[in-house]
Request: fold
Amino acid sequence: TGAGETPGPHLNQIGFRPDTAKRAIVAQDGAPLPWELLDEKGRTVAQGNATVFGPDAASGDTVQQIDFGTFRTPGTYRLKVDGRTGHAFTIAADVYRPLSRASLNFFYQQRAGVAIDARFAGGSQWARAAGHTHEVVTCFKGLDQAGTDWPGCPYTLDVTGGWYDAGDQGKYVVNGGIALWMLQNLYEVDAASPPFPDGSAALPEAGNGINDLLDETRFEMRFLLAMQVPDGQTMTLPLGRQGRGPLRLTPVDAGGMAHHKIADRHWTTIPTPPADDHEERLLFPPSTAATLNLAATAAQCSRIWRGIDDDFARRCLVAAGKAYRAALRNPDVYAAQAFDGSGGYGDGELSDELYWATAELYAATGMPELAESLHKMPLHAAPLTGEASWGSVAALGTITLATATGVQPVERAAARAKLVALADRFLAEEARSGYRIPYASTAYRWGSNSVLLGRGQVLALAARFTGEARYRDGAVDAMDYVLGRNPLDQSYVSGFGWKPMQNPHHRFWAHQFDAKLPGPPPGVLSGGANSTVFPEPASAPLKGKCIGQRCWIDDARAYAHNEVAINWNAPLVWLATDLTRPLPA
Ligand code: 9MR
Reply:
């Protein structure tokens, strides 16, 4: 069954809210085990018998499922199962507040172009000099790995700022988009009483009269806006899809498109703190996917900033409109093939990006023409096939249709029904999962923790739409997995739990390589189990030897298993913050 951890009890290592599900898992076969919940004085306050399930394909374990959800008294407790007593955990109403705050702070610490200040970073060990402070750059010229010869662009853009993507210091519009959308959505779904009011987060902008979540999102939005091709630029771009006939290098009106990414020419070594990165930085060709990511997030931006900063809202709406029209003019500019020095984020299917951007612009403007376009799209009528990821964004458009004000009631009801149907599918998967999580597959892909949290978001929304506790409990189950209810007894979030992730793949939080550098600050999420690819020597020994949830290693070299990324931390912020709020009525 792979690296054998203790049999448990495995549970959410930060504990539980009084009013949601409380589950634990012990990996042991045989008859159902009796369990006891002990208070601080060692007195039994609840007891029962586990339910045996298994063997579970995703972990290889036969498990004893323990459910003590009806116990609701705040306090500190331990579970005792079959004579073994587990770690102490809490039951408290505000158990998610520190995680909500810390996971948002990750974005501050990923900021490019500015120094990271000890006062906002949680300590002097995380302070660092600014990296890439004057990012006025021109385009890559030359051959990509598929042999397409790109002549570049005749201008420079000032793209200083934004968030570094991950453990590398690339800044990608595809991926910046989903991460930014997630945080903007967290504001929009509760626009009446938004989380992170001014002064509540550790940020240089705190106290400026603007909600702190919006201060953080604006930092990335400005970067995405800066990645837009200036008006009237004719540019030679490779049209068509790689692997489906030859690409056509064609001059097009590229004004309004977005460059796919700005990144190093060559991969920098790890560690390389941002200020020490002296690699050449380049803009990579515009892509239709990046352009639609810009259109979608800028339209969303225009909605939430209206009435707060009207000029910024207008600037976003103008950029969104230009990007949208540019994408319609140039619908088949796919991301250039992998270069050395940065990730690809290449996507061969863009109908979901178009649906997403159309939904965002419709919600921003109410234009009947946009509603009409939306209704013509097969994705509009189709059920959702899954949670969102950077390359598969239909759920984002549907969530906006389900939650933004300004969407017609009929449209909103249909979008909500689609999300609730998807949440039902996730709950059905949970019933087939040994560790009781809303994901039953045995395939754990790169960044699998974000799959769980993305599903948690859909479940949490279903709870809001229906008021049904089982959806909220499903969201908690997703969070429980990420915070320790898994066969490795691993909290995948740094600084949270008794066994937190400690050695992320990151060029600055790299104490594994250099004792003078810090480890991760609290609130940073590992990509998590990856049973599909093992590209480097540190994870290679797992290949063929691990099962699903066990394919993970806390090693900074293992970039396909233990990197951190903005699109993974964003749903952590969303869900942790949702779980600080009262249960939906
Ligand atoms: O999250 C991305 C994952 O879905 C892909 O399979 C993988 C390989 O292309 O790339 C991941 O994204 C990485 C990006 O390319 C570069 N920055 C770090 C990202 C997280 O590992």
Q: What stands out?
A: The pocket of 9MR is lined by residues 165-166, 168, 170, 343-345, 446-447, 563, 565 (CB under 6 Å). Residues 133-399 form a domain with the Glycosyltransferase fold (CATH 1.50.10.10).
